[in-house]
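Escalated from tier 1: nicotinamide-adenine-dinucleotide holo job.
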Amino acid sequence: MLNQLPHQLYIAGRWRNARSGRVETVFNPATEAALADVAFGAAQDVDDAVTAAAAAQAAWGKSSGRERGACLRAIAHGVQQQQEQLAQLQTANNGKPLSEALIDVGDVIATFSYYAELAEQLDDHQDQPVALPSAGFNATLRHEPCGVAALVVPWNFPMVTTAWKVAPALAAGCTVVLKPSEITPLPELALAAIIDQAGLPAGVFNLVTGDAEAGAALVSHPAVRKVSFTGSTAVGQTVMKTAADDLKRISLELGGKSAALVFADADIELALEIVCGGIFFNAGQMCSATSRLLVERSIAQDFTARLKLRVESIKVGDPMDPATQMGPLSSRRQYQKVQQYIQQGVAAGLKLLTGGTQPPDMAKGYFVAPTIFADVPVDSPLWREEIFGPVLCINTFDNEQEAVAVANQSEYGLVATVLTSDPERANRVSAALEVGLVWVNSPQVIFPQASWGGMKKSSLGRELGPWGLHTFQEIKHVVMAAPG
Ligand code: NAD
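Tier 2 regenerated the structure:
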């Protein structure tokens, strides 16, 4: 697939180079080998893309939900046809194990199929009568697309984060300009090639590959009416300030420092499995990583010892090997950031239970062994800050109240995991946690029908479900005096 893939910008239905001629090399993080030279756009290219999207907006916004749904189904079908190749491309560019990349591709198909369904239902729900208390007036409710949408995504779940934005935006009738991460543009280029064949009118979907320069130009473009951004909290805050100038509609999906709470009454085998998945899936590069583990003191010693054994058996290596359970970090920059946190923890005298080094036999690649620090004080940067790598910090608690208080003691509030066999406790704790999604005795399953997003500095708004569609729509009421 890599050889047939266009490495250019996709604007107004055509592939083309960046106006400046700039290209940058993207790499395989497992081997550090160059994968491709990709065109990197800047302000002029962004302007071309937004202009193309603006020109296509009126017709696309007026098309029927059924027409838009058909295009989304064609995209889902196109992705389905190339599942294996797309997964391999993800793994090559991002470093996640092939088994995880296949889950991602399945999520992309499910998301486009789900929003195809919602798009098809829109026609029947337009201009719905609204009940009013006065007989002298009739009112109807319409949903209209926001207009041109700027979609900016990171590198940890490239195609998935993209699908969560592109599918609802197109369903709502918005035209879009997508700016993928500079680290992982290849999965998005492959998706753009599929979208190119899906029957969308030219200009409805546009892709500008590039870095922060292109991202900043896109979110500040005056013809953009809606910004949907996923990335770090710091950049999200900048994007929000920029969007304020034109009062652009804005959705943000940002960082996290989520907690897993293991109570003494939990099924311990299940808890061990879920705790490992919550931090070592995708080498911990998940906004939803449950990187703070809180264990009830009465079981902490035994639980920690069993966790250490289990973590030391995780097979780290070539992500293309089906036996591999954890691949490398996705870039040299991320590898260095994670190593700095580990060194900081060691220098501060934190108890390094396991990991902290490059696994043996890895001469090349950005590999970090699964790492655990125990008894981490709650004021340590490792406990408070998002590391975005395979580093788990453990702490203990004496009672439910304390567990909830410590879990909530964070500027973030994305997700949480609760492990207990007591359903009443599960309900009480879920209600008390300041997060957008709680998994109880469950791995981190995500359904397009349920919402994604959190509280505090983790998010603004929600993705997925009908909420993900509404975020690309404006509401309009028409109130008419009844004929006298
Ligand atoms: P990042 O903020 O550095 O970059 C994200 C995207 O924004 C990239 O495409 C980048 O080129 C672009 N960008 C950078 N500066 C910009 C600017 N000034 N204006 C506009 N665009 C700009 O984040 P990252 O390192 O790519 O991703 C990791 C972060 O993403 C983590 O904090 C993680 O928690 C977060 N994330 C959140 C979710 C979620 O759903 N909450 C999901 C995935 C990742």
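The mean pLDDT is 97.
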